[in-house]
Amino acid sequence: MITAILFDMDGVLIDSEEYIAEAAIAYFRSLKVEVQAADFLPFVGAGEDRYIGGVAEKYGVKLDLEQAKLDTYAIYEKLITGKEGALPGVKRFLANAHTAGVSMAVATSADKRKMEINLAVMGLDPTWFTVLINGRDIERKKPFPDIYQKAARDLNKVPADCIVFEDATNGVEAAKAAGMLCGAITTSFSTQQLRNEGADFIISGLDEFPDFSTLEEFNSLLVRFMAREEATKVRLHAYTPYSHFCVGAAIVSTKGNIYRGCNVENSSYGATICAERSAVMQGVAAEGDFKVAMVVVVSDDDPPAPPCALCLQVLAEFATKKTMVYLYDLQGRCEAYTFQDLLPHPFIFPTQRERLKG
Ligand code: THU
């Protein structure tokens, strides 16, 4: 059960990249040095010492780095105040997580001053974060796991209790090295780049989370996002030389395991096996006493494709009326049904009719 969230800040809670670049350019201009936004790109996410120090080195400017940072932050604060708020959905998500009793920490490589400015600009209730960690508190930066390990320790949590929200590949690497679950957000890197680092699921922002009010609901949403990620990945393995219609399915068992399946077609068309049935077979083979807790299907269709009647009939052996079935398209649009919505009248052998209750 996940009971703690560790947030990276820039790119997850707020998108301040543009403002810090503008502030740093203005700072160098005050020294009569004209630098370009592109000069900073190699140093994004490496902490402010490198961000400003790296560009100073490039232009042969000698700086008192501490003073340079303070001056840059003063410009940054003026630029960003009243302009950039929290990213869409952040306030709602944090309010939900607070109500659900999730422990929360901010763990950023940015300097303390920038973290404080950002928290003020976003207008978040600072008491919701039990722990605030900035770049100064940590020797070895991301991709080392140190910052997330410290955040978990300070919250009195073990890695298995924690999920990290990150937008940078370095950060995903840090979270996974810390043995934590990681939800990646596509503010700064592509889905593929974040997937390559081992993110457990990928969303465009915290606004993708529907409302939740308990730890159970929060954990069920995390499982749904992870199942969607698995279905999305396995869909790419579909064998579809005839229809070219690729489907990925992920079935979560009541034991909490995720089983994946893709459609596999055949020259003799009727021998084709759908993604959903393929996933069911994996689950039965792995667990024996198999029960379905959740079904997620990913297809490139509008609306996203539901399981066909054959697959529903097979699922009826292992699901209940209330088992949730989530259908996603490739853009992340979702339709949600109960199993009963999709197959109100399955055929169940007379001696087995107790099973589909619940
Ligand atoms: N397909 C599935 O994998 N799941 C469904 O529930 C609907 C159909 C596959 C079978 C076939 O390979 C292709 O989609 C076109 O029918």
What can be said about this structure in brief?
This protein has 358 residues and is of the alpha/beta class.
Blueprint of the fold:
Blueprint: E1 4-7, H1 17-30, H2 48-58, H3 65-80, H4 90-100, E2 103-107, H5 112-122, E3 131-133, H6 146-154, E4 162-166, H7 169-177, E5 181-185, H8 191-196, E6 201-203, H9 215-235, E7 247-253, E8 258-262, H10 275-287, E9 292-299, H11 309-315, E10 324-328, E11 334-338, H12 339-342
Parallel strand pairs: 1-2, 1-4, 2-3, 4-5, 5-6, 9-10
Antiparallel strand pairs: 7-8, 7-9, 10-11
The structure holds tetrahydrodeoxyuridine.
Tetrahydrodeoxyuridine binds next to helix 10.
Which blocks of ≥5 consecutive residues have pLDDT under 50? Answer: none
Q: Which whole number gives the mean pLDDT?
A: 95
Mind telling me which CATH architecture of the largest domain this is?
3-Layer(aba) Sandwich
Q: What is the level 1 CATH name of the largest domain? A: Alpha Beta
The helix tally amounts to 12
CATH topology group of the largest domain: Rossmann fold
Largest beta-sheet characterization: 6 strands, parallel
Beta-strand share of residues = 15-25%
- CATH homologous superfamily heading of the largest domain: HAD superfamily/HAD-like
Order of helices and strands: EHHHHEHEHEHEHEHEEHEHEEH
**What's the N-to-C terminus distance?**
23 Å
**What form results from the Cα inertia axes?**
elongated
Count of domain modules: 2
Work out the number of β strands: 11
Q: Helix/strand/pairing class, anyone? A: alpha/beta
User: What hetero molecules are in the model?
Assistant: tetrahydrodeoxyuridine
User: Strands of the biggest beta sheet: in what spatial order?
Assistant: 3-2-1-4-5-6
- How much is the radius of gyration in Å? 24 Å
Give helix % range: 25-40%
